Beta-galactosidase galactose-binding domain-containing protein
Amino acid sequence: MFSFISAPADTFIDLSNWGKGVAWLNGFNLGRYWSTAGPQMYLYVPAPLLSSGKNTLVFLELEKLSSDCASGGTPCTINLLDHPLNYK
């Protein structure tokens, strides 16, 4: 769960260090991601889907996570961006 300090705006979720799966925000299916196969490394989140209060983001990860995220008990994180980053 997370919340915003100011009014929510259109956002992108960076899933480049995740594997393959599906994401939901507040019960709405945002889509599938598969960072190793691309190009679904970023999911677009329109502002109307975001609540100024609490938001719930759920992931169904279907593959193992990258070593950056899963090794040594390091928590897997996401970044909310105002634009998608270029990927290789």
About this structure: The longest strand covers residues 28-34. The chain is about 5% helix and 40% strand. The helical segments are 67-70.
